[in-house]
């Protein structure tokens, strides 16, 4: 009986200590990790044109707030013109042919994309109206206002070809274009190998439209993907997909030319865009430790504040398996977060 009483007393003491820790300021860390969650099932369908067409890989709005513009698997960038008109072709890479670039059961898009191109990152320079396209196979391209055939600007830097051109953003003041090359060893069709091998040959580059010159700002990055320039134009935030991190590269100030960890993430990041509040929305391809069973919900995106802290999340059912989740703030509406992702052949967007 005495032994049982001592065990019971010890258990009660442990319980009291645990409760005190829970209510003490320093012991509230578990509760502080709870962040507001957005339900991604609130969607509106934007059906893609018929056929074996996959997308989007990226989206953008022009200076008038029109769009979205979206890159798709046959090498084109499409523009959404409202429910009555739907999608129309806005631009395509040099050498594009609808006959040769249209996928079929016997000819999947992976067999044609090296010839037809695969637009990934998209970003408008709002003042000039130029659309910059990071095409995985063609390199960095530019499209004149009104669309049509794109012009290839950069295919190699310092003698090394662009093998997996991925993310892009534009300094709206200077017009300088920042973009990533995810690997010097693997192409987009081999993207799983970039993660599997821990490939760290990715590069961050800057193209100056005034001089036509491109420079490598940072080499040796592990799977650099999407990127975004900060609101104050002092740094870039870069998705490092394989390591599940966000990196910060300084382009102004005392730390100019240095790169550092910005945030550790619970999933594999893809695209990233400013949230117009000093932070960023980052899309997740999937969670780091996600299981195929259990609760039918997983992370699709996170909002990160200026200090690299997770302050909001977006969740959806596990049936949502995006090829790429891409987030953007509509430049006209002050509180409109849009998310595009892929269910098979259908593009969805969420307006919040």
Task: Provide the descriptors you would attach to this structure in a database record.
single chain, mainly beta, Neuraminidase, 352 residues, five-stranded mixed β-sheet, disordered C terminus, 5 helices, globular, 12% helix
Structure description:
The protein has 352 residues and is mainly beta. It has a single domain (50-296), classed as Neuraminidase. The chain has 5 helices and 28 strands. It has helices at residues 2-23, 29-32, 98-101, 109-116, 191-196; strands at 37-39, 44-47, 59-60, 69-71, 76-80, 87-92, 119-125, 130-135, 139-143, 148-149, 151-154, 156-157, 160-161, 165-170, 177-181, 202-208, 213-221, 224-229, 235-240, 245-250, 259-264, 267-274, 280-287, 298-304, 310-316, 326-329, 337-343, 346-351. The strands form 7 sheets. It has a 5-stranded mixed sheet with strand order 1-25-24-23-22, with no helix packed on it. A 5-stranded mixed sheet has the order 3-4-5-6-10, with no helix packed on it. β20 and β21 (259-264) form a beta hairpin. It is globular and about 50 Å long. The protein starts with a helix and ends with a strand.
Could you list the spans in which at least 5 consecutive residues all have pLDDT below 50?
Answer: 1-5, 7-32, 323-352
Tally of individual domains = 1
Tell the overall outline.
Answer: globular
**Largest beta-sheet details:** 5 strands, mixed
Determine the strand fraction and express it as a percent band.
35-45%
GO cellular component, one term: vacuole
InterPro entries: 6-blade_b-propeller_TolB-like, Strictosidine_synth_cons-reg
Pfam family, one: Str_synth
Family: Belongs to the strictosidine synthase family.
